Amino acid sequence: MKYLKTGIFILFLAAVVMLFVVIPRILPINIISCTNQYGSCSEELRRDLEKIEGKSLKEIKELIEGMMSKNLFVKDYSYKYEIPDKVVVYVIVKKPKFILQNSNDNSFALIDRDGVVLGYGENTTLPVVVYSGESVALRERVNAKELFSLNLISSMYYYYQAKKGIMVEDRLEVRMRDGVTVIFPLAGDREVLLGSLKVVLSKIERVSTIDLRFKNPVLK
Question: Taking the chain, what is the end-to-end CA distance rounded to the nearest angstrom?
Answer without folding.
Answer: 101
